[in-house]
Design a protein that fits this description.
2 domains, two-stranded antiparallel sheet
Length: 286
């Protein structure tokens, strides 16, 4: 318990346990700064870890948790230990109070909420299945769905895996509704989706979706019409077009033959040449 008491002396009493006054290492013209550490709960570890790391990093004490090859500054280590302990619920605090360093406290929390390697592998498999099943729901806003995909990347990172932009872009383009298919086809045809940033793909889809919505609200032109045909629709259309063409050509040929016969019969002064009416053939001479 001596280590716990030593760490807790770094807190400024009289404040909420989640709000502490930090003094940057080495002093500084700005003096002390007040920064709120989020409280850890049973289901917010991913978000809590991101916020906690940002707060520790802005005060240049994150190196106490991830020192690399450098030696850990003792004052920074105590500062981080105090901040972490002050953001823990009582049951978790009692479990990590025997840890000697801030690195040990952080790793203990990670093992508790993320799990050991075996649990991590199982969690990662569950997460992959959840990612594979993701799709944009009916009526869901594009920004909301993009946020769900980005959150999935953060969950992957928390398990030590990387969900890169290529996987996110592919998932985004493959699971958006049919109304966005024209722009999806354009992106895949004219851009390299393996190197495209996720934010860029989301921005292109958002711009197209906004134009379609605006045209629909204005009642303009072909906003609600079908832009592309299925293979069956295209084949039926071509078959109808060919049949219509044949009928028009047949009707034109009949009309031409009728006109020729009428012109031949109306020739004035025509008479049959003698000896030529053979085998149903009649030759006229003007």
């Amino acid at each position: 318990m001596h280590d716990l008491v030593s760490c807790m002396h770094e807190l400024r009493f009289g404040r909420s346990p989640a709000t502490m006054a930090l003094v940057p290492h080495g002093g500084g013209a700005g003096g002390s700064a007040t920064m709120a550490m989020p409280m850890l709960t049973a289901d917010n570890y991913t978000v809590w870890a991101i916020k906690a790391q940002a707060i520790l990093d802005v005060h240049t004490v994150w190196e106490a948790v991830a020192p690399g090859d450098a030696a850990v500054n003792a004052r920074k280590d105590k500062m981080v230990c105090a901040l972490l302990l002050g953001a823990l619920p009582e049951d978790v605090l009692l479990q990590v109070s025997a840890k000697l360093t801030a690195r040990e406290v952080w790793d203990s929390l990670k093992v508790r909420f993320v799990g050991a390697d075996r649990v991590r592998a199982a969690s990662l498999g569950t997460l992959r299945g959840e990612f594979d099943r993701m799709k944009m729901a009916d009526g869901e806003e594009l920004d909301v769905y993009g946020g769900r995909l980005a959150a999935m990347a953060a969950r992957y990172a928390n398990l030590g895996e990387t969900l890169d932009d290529a996987a996110l872009v592919k998932k985004l383009l493959d699971t958006v509704p049919d109304r966005l298919f024209p722009v999806v086809a354009g992106i895949k045809q004219f851009h390299d989706v393996t190197t495209m940033a996720f934010d860029e793909a989301l921005g292109r889809l958002r711009a197209f979706d906004e134009r379609v919505r605006r045209r629909g609200q204005d009642g303009g032109g072909r906003g609600g019409e079908q832009l592309l045909m299925t293979a069956a629709q295209w084949a039926a259309r071509e078959s109808t077009r060919r049949c219509s063409g044949r009928r028009r050509r047949a009707q034109r040929g009949v009309g031409e033959r009728r006109q020729q016969a009428q012109a031949l019969l109306q020739v004035r002064g025509a008479r049959a040449l003698p000896g030529t009416q053979q085998r149903g053939i009649c030759v006229y001479r003007v």
